[in-house]
Amino acid sequence: MANNLVIFDLDGTLADTMDDLHTAISGMLVRLGYPTRTKEELLGFINNGAREFVRRSLPSDVQESELIIDTAVGVYDEEYAKCFAEKTHLYEGIYEALSELKEETGCKFAVLSNKQDRFVKEIIRKLFPEKFFAIVQGQVKGVPTKPDPTALLEICRLLRTKTENCTLVGDSDVDIKTAINAEVKGIGVSWGYRDASVLKAAGASVIAESPEQLYDYLLLKIRDNI
């Protein structure tokens, strides 16, 4: 049997993290004396890592000041540390779908997110049983964020998986572009932070509309590799 690997994005794919992100950004902006943002606004800023998320959340007239962004990122980290797991929760059906897939196929799972690494690990630890994922990785200093394929390819190397046996699952154009850049199969999910039209425009050929449908797509892909 092929050594199959499925790598999942976190925010908007496995879990709805938006309420806690909004709380943290609001706390940061209030502390710095800036106007707050709506959740709808923040949805347009997410997916490219914490620093870019913070920069876009700041008023437009200070978004080019690296000094202000440095300060804001520090404050944001403090605020997010207070609330990162308060309202964050798995999407309905996702745990059941992944558990069934793992039991039926024996494939390996990993998580790759552009969120800060320590928060990714803590959230996964709270939401999933121990050792559910072989590797859990967030944004690490010195490693390019998605859509750069470096981190994904390193996960494949560490888990001794050929790229043709790897699938990346995500809710954003960033994830789809990462899959394309790494030359692995990409599956978009429509229940997250980006519309299906955004995923299609990025090059997604397969989009799951529910965790059950994701299970079906992944099972078919894995069986094709056996």
Description:
With 226 residues, the protein is α/β, with parallel strands linked by helices. It folds into two domains: 5-16 and 89-225, Rossmann fold (3-Layer(aba) Sandwich); 18-83. The chain has ten helices and eight strands. The protein has helices at residues 18-32, 39-43, 50-57, 66-83, 94-105, 117-127, 150-158, 173-182, 196-202, 211-225; strands spanning 5-8, 15-16, 89-90, 108-116, 135-139, 166-170, 185-189, 207-208. Strand 4 (108-116), helix 6 (117-127) and strand 5 form a beta-alpha-beta unit. Helix 1 (18-32) crosses helix 4 (66-83) and helix 8 runs parallel beside helix 9. The protein is globular, with a radius of gyration of 17 Å. The model has no long low-confidence stretch (mean pLDDT 96).
List the helices and strands and how they pair.
Blueprint: E1 5-8, E2 15-16, H1 18-32, H2 39-43, H3 50-57, H4 66-83, E3 89-90, H5 94-105, E4 108-116, H6 117-127, E5 135-139, H7 150-158, E6 166-170, H8 173-182, E7 185-189, H9 196-202, E8 207-208, H10 211-225
Parallel strand pairs: 1-4, 1-6, 4-5, 6-7, 7-8
Antiparallel strand pairs: 2-3
